[in-house]
Amino acid sequence: MAYHSTRVVCKLCGTESTAISPASYSYLGSPDLDTRPPETSRSALRYWLQRCPQCGYCAPDLAQGLTLAASIITQRQYQAQLSNRALPDLANTLLCWSLIQERTGNYRAAAWAYLRAAWVCDDALLADVAQRTRLNAILLFNQAPRLPGNYPSEAGTHELVLADLNRRAGRLAQVADICWQGLSKDAPAEVRRALAFEMHLAACHDTACHTLDEAYQRRYRSIVYPASFGAAGQSAPTAADGGIEALAS
Ligand SMILES: [Zn+2]
User: 54: CA distance to ligand 1 center in Å?
Assistant: First the structure.
């Protein structure tokens, strides 16, 4: 992968440093169910945020930022996160950016940063931290207003990400209801298949990482329906959603 190198001046302290960014992205394979991209885009996550070497400000662009960030980065919690030796630097950078977003009321951006930090913790085999990070992402996604145009904008995709966060964090009992919420919307066929796959994985007590491609290829013998099934008029997923009974063999 080719990279650009530019000089950037920190908005908060005026220190100049070098910022590196990929010149291009490519996708070799399938994204995970929670939208984590495949390589080579996956490796580019480390360049998504910049960190000022002087004041520790973390942001997608150090030259930009709210004045309020200047007071947040001096707080004990931010400084402790910045230098947390138990975590990879990239996870700390993402969690610091999340803290700024959370404190300034941008809960959705904070939630996405938590999810990305969870990916880094997955790679570092820090399962407990990854779980806590996903639980924080769930809390923040649930606090964030659902505005038109928010990524991911496709119907049912918000529920897919939430379902995967809950499943990966071990909150299996929550997954089916979230998936039904997604299936009750006018979601595209590929999203419906992924939601049905999430239900299947939760019913199998599977908390591992899985890809969207798997959702398209899997065949199920059965799905365990939530206790509330049918109460709100839900209909069972069809063969097109994942081939539940119709494709059982
Ligand atoms: Zn700075």
Answer: 5
